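Why should sequence recovery work at all? Because a backbone constrains its sequence more than one might expect. Tight turns favour small or flexible residues, buried strands favour hydrophobic ones, and helices have their own preferences. The token representation captures these environments compactly. In the example below, the structure is given first.
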């Protein structure tokens, strides 16, 4: 499952809760909720990995640019270029950090939705159990 498939999965879960039998809910819901949690965690981990790797690449490029410019004997130009690239890299890093924050916010929303759906599920089970008595 991918992050893009989460809205469809949430819709399926709500449909299952509203229309599924108690046995369907007991069997399918825990699996679906677990998959949503895994996707959410996986997305956050991947975003962090990309951000960390991007930082390493930027640092390596910065060092490479400085080395090439020094080899040419143009240290001032190298410093300007490195500074410019560093500023650009910092802006890109800010963008990635914002994306990571958005992903974390999305994960929190999903976790909250899962929690809410779980509570509704439990309430439906309790209601179904008390209706059967």
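From this structural description, the recovered sequence reads:
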């Amino acid at each position: 499952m991918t992050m893009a498939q989460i809205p469809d999965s949430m819709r399926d879960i709500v449909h299952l809760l509203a229309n599924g039998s108690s046995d369907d809910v007991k069997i399918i819901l825990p699996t679906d909720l677990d998959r949503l949690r895994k996707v959410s965690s996986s997305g956050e981990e991947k975003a962090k990995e990309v951000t960390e790797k991007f930082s390493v690449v930027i640092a390596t490029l910065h060092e490479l640019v400085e080395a090439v410019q020094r080899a040419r004997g143009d240290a001032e130009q190298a410093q300007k270029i490195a500074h410019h690239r560093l500023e650009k890299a910092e802006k890109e890093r800010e963008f990635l950090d914002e994306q990571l924050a958005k992903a974390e916010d999305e994960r929190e929303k999903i976790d909250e939705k899962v929690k809410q759906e779980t509570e509704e599920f439990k309430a439906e089970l309790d209601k179904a159990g008390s209706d059967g008595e």
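A few observations help interpret the result. The radius of gyration is 24 Å.
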